[in-house]
Amino acid sequence: MTGSLCDVLPAAAALLGVPGAPDRLALAEAAGDRVDRVLVVLVDGLGWHLLPELAAGAPLLSSVLAGGSGRLTRLACTFPSTTPTSLVSLGTGARPGEHGILGFTLNVPGTDRVLNHILWRDDPPYAAWQPLPTWFGRLERAGVAAHAVLPAAFMGSGLTDAAYRGARFVPTLPGDDYAAALTATLRSAPGLVYGYTADLDTAAHVAGIGSPAWHGAAARVDALLTRLVEELPAGAVLLVIADHGGLNVGPDARIDLDADPRLAAGVRVVAGEPRVRHLHTEAGAAADVRAAWAGILGDRAQVHSREEAVASGVFGPVDPRHAARIGDVVVTCTGDLAVLATAHEPPETARLIGFHGAATPAEMAIPLIVRRG
């Protein structure tokens, strides 16, 4: 079975008895009967194709991969395969064209401003930029408690509101026992509890997939999940998911658009991220920019006009209110290419080793693990 990240919370809601919630992932079959609590843990960067490599130092994940415990299913995240987009697709059950979070960064239409969704606080207004309700709010309105146990630093941000609007927030601090916080919240009342860990993704970006730091992060994630399985109360089910996968990009597979006048010509605003670029062009320059990028990148990327990108369906149905957030030209890397923008982005972006965002299986395929205690 192949499903979508968008299907996870509706299926969890169906498991908890919410009327009209669709269970497209057959969770009821995997979870068994008498379920009154669902714990959803999103492991940032836990791509499907990475499971065999990290399994050596991760006993629980190794057992799941070998078919020894729980049910393992391959899902797909939404495009672009980037954290802000995926978190909001998870929370709303909708594709990016519908909810409007169409990339890691986006141009605010009518301006030259680029919104970084990780740093988004209160401008643009939350409900205007992401207008859809979330499944956390739907659960609450159906009388089912929905908690999100998240770092206190996430509280009050635009991305938190866009992805988890309507949840009961339980803030945690860096020194807190996160497994204990999740378990205590799960035991406090029937319903849904959501948790998130960025440890693996951070190690992939900074040190690279397969590095000692990445394997160390995988071991810590595995230890967290093992504790959660061991401490699940009766009637509880654990769902482990991810927001995207990833791949390493070597020094020879990087292009800096700001170092090549041919690529910079006619470009007014650069958004997106190194694997998927939204290029907003000067008036009348879109066709020339598209032709220049297609000629230079060749088969290393797909270069589309906005209209072509929308028509391809890669973003799902695009709400007309969100269309201008998509670049006049959309560049999607197809191999291991990364398109840097050193004059437009913080210098640490160019120092990253692991990347994601594009539509390759290594980036889009994610696991769904279903476990009872």
Can you describe this structure?
By secondary structure, this protein is α/β, with parallel strands linked by helices. It is 34% helix and 23% strand. The chain has an eight-stranded mixed beta sheet with strand order 1-3-18-9-2-8-6-7, sandwiched between helices. The chain has a four-stranded antiparallel beta sheet with strand order 12-13-15-14. The radius of gyration is 20 Å and the shape is globular. The relative contact order is 0.20.
Give me the count of strands.
18
Radius of gyration from the alpha-carbon trace, in angstroms: 20 Å
Decide which structural class fits the backbone. Answer: alpha/beta
Major sheet size, sense and barrel closure: 8 strands, mixed
Q: Determine the N-to-C terminus distance.
A: 24 Å
Number of helices: 17
**Which regions contain 5 or more consecutive residues with pLDDT less than 50?**
none
Helix content: 25-40%
Globular, elongated, flat, extended or rod-shaped: what is the shape? globular
- Which strand-content bin applies to the residues? 15-25%
